[in-house]
Design a protein that fits this description.
- The protein has 270 residues and is of the alpha+beta class.
- The strands form four sheets. Strands 1, 2, 3, 4, 5, 7, 15 and 17 form an eight-stranded mixed sheet that branches.
- The two termini are 27 Å apart.
Length: 270
C-alpha cells in the first residue's frame, strides 16, 4: 500500500491487495486513513460493483417515485454522469464541500465511487477529499467556535434529488456529531453561483457578508494540502471513502470531457 498525503491520510492499493482484505480490515483502514483508491479493476459492471460493496454494510437505495427506482435492477447505484451543464448533483459544475446524507436525513458511513468512463479529464473534474478529523484538531479557534456553537440551516433546492429533503423549510442539521474517536461534520458549503445551486446554507444571526466571509476562510483552511487531496480520475479507479471522517467536493469540468462515476453509499450494521 502507498500512502497519499504525508500525514498518512489516504492510501492507494492494488486490486489483489484489496481483495485479500476482509471487510473489517477495510472498515478499520478507512477509519484510520480516511479513504483508499484501488487500482487494477477493469470494466466492472453494476452487479460486480454491488457485490464488492455489500460486504461493508447496508446499501442505500435511490428511489424515483415515478419510476420506482432510477436504474432498473440497480436501485443501489446512482450514476453521476455529468449530463447537465448546470451546477447540479449529476452535472459538470462545481459541487461544493459537503458530507453525504444530511439533507436526506440518512446515515451514510461509506461512499464508493467507480470510474466507469473517463476521457478528456487530465486536469479537470477532480474529487477533493478533506481529512476533517485532522483539520478539526488543528483548526483555528475562531473557526472552530462557529462550527461548535452556531446554528446552521440548509435548504435543498435541486429537484428531484432534494425534492423531499426540506421542502420550503430550512433544515437544521447538527454540524458536528461526537463519535468518540472524531467529530463527524455534516455541513453543506454554499455554491459560488447561487443561480445553479443544489442547496444553500445560512447561519442564524449572521448577515450575508459574515456568512460569506466565514465560508471563504474555512474553505481556504480546509483545502490546504495538509488536509486535502484532489483526485483526478482515471478509467476504472475505485474509491472508498469514510463519510464520518471525510468531507468532499467536485471540481467543475467542461463538456469536452466525459466523467461517468457510479456511486454507492453504505451504512454500517454495527
Amino acid at each position: 500500500m502507498q500512502k497519499i498525503l504525508r500525514s498518512g491520510f489516504g492510501v492507494q492499493m492494488t486490486k489483489s491487495i484489496f481483495e485479500n482484505m476482509n471487510s473489517n480490515h477495510v472498515k478499520g483502514l478507512l477509519k484510520d486513513k480516511g479513504f483508499c483508491i484501488i487500482k487494477g479493476y477493469e470494466n466492472i459492471d453494476r452487479d460486480q460493483l454491488i457485490n464488492i460493496c455489500k460486504n461493508f454494510g447496508e446499501l442505500e437505495e435511490y428511489i424515483d417515485e415515478k419510476k420506482k427506482h432510477k436504474y432498473s435492477g440497480h436501485k443501489h447505484i446512482f450514476e453521476v454522469d455529468g449530463s447537465q451543464e448546470k451546477n447540479a448533483v449529476r452535472g459538470r459544475g462545481e459541487l461544493p464541500i459537503h458530507a453525504d446524507g444530511g439533507l436526506l436525513k440518512k446515515q451514510i458511513d461509506v461512499i464508493a465511487l467507480y470510474a466507469a468512463k473517463i476521457s478528456g479529464m487530465k486536469f479537470q473534474g477532480g474529487t477533493g477529499i478533506i481529512d476533517f478529523k485532522l483539520a478539526l484538531e488543528e483548526m483555528p479557534p475562531h473557526l472552530k467556535r462557529v462550527l461548535e456553537e452556531e446554528n446552521f440551516e440548509t435548504l435543498g433546492l435541486e429537484e428531484p434529488y432534494y425534492s423531499n429533503a426540506s421542502s420550503e423549510d430550512w433544515l437544521h442539521i447538527p454540524v458536528l456529531t461526537d463519535l468518540g474517536w472524531t467529530k463527524k461534520c455534516v455541513l453543506y458549503f454554499n455554491y459560488e453561483d447561487e443561480k445553479f445551486a443544489s442547496w444553500k446554507t445560512r447561519i442564524q444571526g449572521f448577515n450575508q457578508n459574515e456568512t460569506r466571509e466565514f465560508f471563504t476562510e474555512l474553505i481556504k483552511y480546509l483545502k490546504d494540502p495538509r488536509y486535502c487531496y484532489l483526485h483526478f480520475w482515471k478509467q476504472d479507479d475505485l474509491l472508498l471513502m469514510d463519510n464520518r471522517r471525510c468531507i468532499h467536493y467536485r471540481e467543475p469540468f467542461s463538456k469536452d470531457g466525459e466523467r461517468i462515476n457510479l456511486r454507492l453509499q453504505m451504512k454500517y450494521n454495527d
